[in-house]
Specification:
4 helices; DNA-binding; 29% helix; homodimer; alpha+beta; two-stranded antiparallel ribbon; 5 strands; 28% strand; globular; three-stranded antiparallel β-sheet
Chain lengths: 143, 143
DNA sequence: AGAAATTTGTCCGTATGTATC
DNA sequence: AGATACATACGGACAAATTTC
């Protein structure tokens, strides 16, 4: 199979399909997703494509992956596992994730509430103390 | 070379090296990074690895890529501090209000959830369309 | 305790399509 | 038209963490 990207790329289609499985409970919270090898067979896609699809879900914090174990559907309470405290710089990007637009954001972007937005959170430190937290929101279409 | 290393994936090492070049001014703001082919030769890495490294910097908004052009070092002074895209469109402060800290914010500021924070929301427009919404959070009385 | 199997992580090389200069 | 760069997709390989036998 060469590379026809008509419309949606395959990894996005696969990501959406897996997202639906998680959101409908076909894959319950905390459960393991099928291993990459199984998804390769099911979707007849290469491993790279499967991993790219899972990467989309991971960025959206819908799944979490552990080396040697597998990829789990996220638990609702495991939201604050960012734990990126390495930088000494003044501004540090903490995370990027997809969130559903609340009413305010939906009104600003003129979309329906619940539309997926990309949220970036960063913190500004003075010494070790957090001075400010910044969250920016963009449409998924990007810049 | 099969796959040496570990301790740090190659693409992260390359990303860190490029980040240093940008932050030290070896690659000045707005300047083009070397093309992928040059980085491939310099680091003896495959294209995918180079692109992955650049992807890390792009996500952190340290660089920006343009189709058919190349990858530029970001204009740190105006772009990184504000989180906005330099010089594009108009910025308008929408509102200031007090909100209760959610779990993420409480953890960042090292206070209890529910502590009052000052939230400022502003939007960046290009024409009439909203490009980006920014929300900043500070402790009350901290400016 | 140890070896094998499973699963994810990373890297390589290649190929095709698309967009811009 | 040609060069450059990006997006997507494939296949193969070895490394590392975990589980299973």
């Amino acid at each position: 199979m060469p590379t026809p990207h008509y419309g949606q790329p395959r990894y996005r289609v696969i990501a959406d399909e897996l997202r639906t499985r998680i959101e409908t409970g076909a894959i319950p919270p905390g459960a393991l997703l099928p291993p990459e090898s199984a998804l390769m067979a099911e979707y007849r896609a290469s491993r790279g494509t499967i991993r790219q699809a899972i990467g989309v879900l991971r960025e959206a914090r819908l799944v979490a992956t552990e080396h040697g174990r597998g990829t789990y559907a996220a638990l609702r309470s495991s939201e604050n596992e960012s734990g990126l405290l390495a930088g000494v710089g003044t501004v540090e990007l903490i995370r990027v994730r997809e969130v559903a637009a609340d009413e305010d954001l939906a009104e600003a972007f003129e979309v329906e509430a619940g539309t997926a937005l990309v949220e970036r959170q960063s913190v500004q430190r003075v010494g070790s103390a957090v001075r400010l937290v910044k969250r920016t929101y963009r449409l998924r279409g990007d810049d």
